[in-house]
Design goal:
By secondary structure, the chain is of the alpha/beta class. Among the domains are: 200 residues, 3-Layer(aba) Sandwich (Rossmann fold), CATH 3.40.50; 44 residues, no CATH class; 150 residues, Ku, C-terminal domain (Serine Threonine Protein Phosphatase 5, Tetratricopeptide repeat), CATH 1.25.40. The chain is 39% helix and 16% strand. It contains 23 helices and 15 strands. The strands form three sheets. A seven-stranded mixed barrel has the order 7-8-12-15-14-13-11. It has a six-stranded mixed sheet with strand order 3-2-1-4-5-6, with helices on both faces. A hairpin with an 8-residue loop joins strand 13 and strand 14. Helix 17 packs parallel to helix 19. It is elongated and about 120 Å long. The C terminus is likely disordered.
Length: 709
């Protein structure tokens, strides 16, 4: 029997006590075979039903007595016919003995595959363990009989799994003896006994097949140049994805039994100057864009650019566990275990793990899993202590990001918000009730949606659709099973709905009318007055049929910092997330507005607006960590104010204590806090005599602005 092939025998209890749950058992077992039909079509499956009115099994025919009420289906390649039988399980009439049923299933495997441990052979029992067990043979206790069965199963490499249904309170309090028998049998054969307390858990308890763990790495973990520990690395969890679709051709004649229906795809490169000319491979080269320039890279150069490293795991150091937040973990976790059978490696790993646990530390390691691997991963080892005999201490390994992998997002604090924008006590209590209501692990019941007992509804629906499509080419995509729907749709009771309504009542939405700020700049006042006159002369009615009106222009999306409401436009552009260019565009636009306000100032009439814009620019640059942009502009602005004309503005800047952004505010700033405070005092305004040309220019400006005003 090939290692990649599995033989599975379902042993199903159809006794009267199981009747309320047989439709769940039917769907769950059929779902397992539907997945095997797609992914493991060479697997073999058998079926044993106990608690039946009739009897049909080989042991009954051979022995002549016992093994009554047991019906068996031979072990064959998985096919749709067996799926159909599972979809319509019969109802039994008598209480069945699951020990006899296990013996029948074991006999089927022994006869099919003979002696030896080769291959993956598994028995899966589903029962509520409520039916009585027959007395064993004379001179033997029940546990001795189970030990004998387990010994034979172990000799033949048969694994035993069991799912015990406990879907009501009465059954949860009974059947302890049966549970002990099944757990003993499972432990001897390296199997697992799962207690199923809901139909959803049954889907997760039935594994499509036993996945044989394979090592990701076998070798040394280098502690120091002279100290190494032999370790094996396994994947702890790996996401199972929906299978990808393959291109299929139906052009081959149906009579051709050897047709593969494979579609071969060829790519042809054409010249941009002449699309009829093909470019041969020798004349093609790859390249990278460097700005607007395309840099060609030859295959030899591309090969030399690829980083390669020697296989190995190297310890870099230790740090406190709090320094590695949970959201830094990337990809799937792995498990570091000592080399099996290596006592020194087990002692070394155990000592290291327990020392890190006591000090609340983690280890930082550098890993290259294969020789010549083109990428190096950095990760942390978190101790995983074992408290069971025969299981060694180990480490969980999680990949952590480099600086280029981290994404930081700055959010404004609630500390400086007014009371009207902070949650009230009633709102906090309503959200507390929401958290308590959706608690998956309340103290008085079993945890819901446990990962090891929750099946992926997307995969189940996908494989069920393929099965239906194989029976009927015109089959439609089925609805998600009601049992699996509980994974994605919470089941709310009337009490829950009442609490949700209370939550909604605490967060009502109010339509707030935006009020326009009064303009301060004389030019803006003139433009606003002219628009008001036009609005009175021409009503806001769209007669062209184009859908344009004054209101549609007033509510347009902000694309630049305007002179009417520069601070509001600046903040709106910083808040936009549809492109990375808006932050730079907002900063440059605000700089231009400040310079324009100062250049067009008459006797300081624009200083207040310029100061407000400067303060907003500084606050925005701190939030976006653009300290260099602001500091460079602020130095230029200080040089510009070194004269009599803008001295009053610089005095206002000093009074407002607006200065350079320091390291205390933005970590990448090159200005210390002391230097930022000293910058204002060091920039004293020089009193320069007013020349005749300047006096004449000022007089002309006074006259011009006086006439305009």
């Amino acid at each position: 029997m090939a290692r990649s092939k599995e033989s599975l025998v379902f042993v199903l209890d159809v006794s009267p006590s199981m009747h309320p749950y047989l439709h769940h058992v039917s769907k769950a077992t059929a779902a397992v075979l539907e997945r095997k039909l797609f992914n493991h079509k060479n697997d073999e499956v058998g079926l044993v039903l106990f608690g039946m009115e009739e009897t049909d099994n080989d042991l009954r025919r051979e022995v002549g007595e016992a093994y009554e009420g047991i019906v068996s289906e031979p072990i064959t390649l998985v096919d749709g016919e067996l799926v159909t039988k599972l979809r319509a399980l019969p109802r039994g009439c008598y209480a069945g003995d699951y020990v006899d049923a296990i013996v029948v299933a074991t006999d089927m495997i022994f006869k099919k595959y003979g002696d030896g441990k080769k291959g993956n052979k598994r028995i899966c029992l589903i029962t509520d363990a409520q039916s009585p067990i027959k007395e064993p043979m004379e001179g033997m206790s029940m546990m001795e009989q189970v030990e004998k069965i387990a010994e034979k199963m172990e000799d033949h490499g048969v694994k035993f799994d069991a799912a015990i249904l406990r879907m009501n309170e009465e059954k949860r309090e009974s059947g302890s003896e049966s549970t002990e028998i099944l757990e003993n049998l499972a432990s001897r054969t390296h199997g697992e006994v799962t207690t199923v307390e809901s139909p959803l858990c049954l889907f997760g308890a039935l594994k499509p097949r036993t996945v044989t763990p394979t090592t990701l790495y076998r070798g040394d973990m280098e502690m120091t140049p002279g100290a190494r520990i032999k370790v094996w690395v396994y994947k702890k969890a790996a996401q199972e994805r929906v299978p990808s679709l393959k291109v299929y051709s139906d052009k081959a004649p149906q009579s051709d039994a050897l047709a593969t229906h494979v579609v071969k795809m060829d790519t042809d490169y054409k010249s941009s100057d002449d699309p009829t000319v093909s470019i041969p491979k020798a004349q093609r080269a790859k390249g990278y864009y460097y700005g607007q320039q395309l840099i060609p890279v030859t295959p030899d150069m591309e090969l030399s650019l690829k980083f390669t490293a020697d296989k190995g795991v190297k310890l870099l150091g230790f740090t406190e566990a709090a320094n590695i937040p949970r959201h830094y973990y990337m990809k799937e976790p792995n498990l570091f275990v000592p080399e099996p059978g290596n006592r020194k490696a087990s002692l070394a790993i155990s000592a290291l793990a327990r020392a890190l646990k006591q000090t609340n530390m983690v280890a930082l390691v550098r890993c290259v899993w294969r020789q010549g691997q083109r990428n190096v991963v950095m990760g942390v080892l978190t101790p995983n202590l074992s408290f069971e005999d025969g299981i060694a201490d180990s480490f969980y390994f999680n990949i952590v990001p480099f600086a280029e992998d981290i994404r930081e997002f700055g959010f404004a604090s609630f500390d400086d918000r007014p009371a009207s924008q902070l949650p009230s006590k009633q709102q906090e209590e309503a959200t507390d009730l929401l958290v308590q209501m959706l608690d998956l692990s309340p103290s008085d019941s079993v945890e819901s949606l446990q990962p090891e007992k929750t099946s992926n509804p997307v995969l189940q629906r996908f494989y069920h659709f393929l099965y239906l499509k194989s029976l009927n080419p015109d089959a439609l995509v089925p609805q998600l099973d009601e049992t699996l729907k509980k994974v994605i749709e919470p089941d709310f009771s009337s009490e829950h709905i009442e609490k949700l309504q209370g939550l909604c009542s605490q967060f009502t939405l109010v339509n707030v009318q935006k009020t326009k700020n009064s303009t301060k700049f004389w030019k803006d006042r003139i433009e606003a007055a002219a628009k008001d006159d036009d609005a009175e002369a021409k009503p806001d009615v769209d007669t062209s049929g184009s859908g344009l009106s004054f209101d549609s222009f007033a509510t347009r999306q902000v694309e630049e910092v305007g002179s009417l409401n520069p601070v509001q436009d600046f903040q709106t552009l910083l808040a936009r997330r549809d492109s990375d260019e808006w932050v730079g565009k907002a900063i440059q636009g605000m700089k231009k507005i400040i310079i324009d306000l100062l250049d067009s100032s008459y006797k300081g009439n624009t200083y207040d607006k310029a100061l407000t814009c400067l303060a907003a620019l500084r606050s925005g640059c701190v939030m976006q960590e653009e300290s260099k942009e602001f500091n460079d502009f602020f130095r230029v602005l200080a040089d510009k104010c070194q004269g009599k004309r803008l001295s009053d503005f610089w005095d206002a800047v000093i009074q407002r204590k607006l200065t350079l952004i320091s390291k205390g505010e933005v970590s990448d700033s090159d200005v210390t806090e002391e230097a930022a405070l000293a910058f204002l005092t060091s920039r004293t305004v020089k009193e320069e005599p007013t020349t005749a040309e300047e006096a004449e220019e000022i007089d002309e400006m006074d006259a011009l602005l006086g006439e305009a005003v």
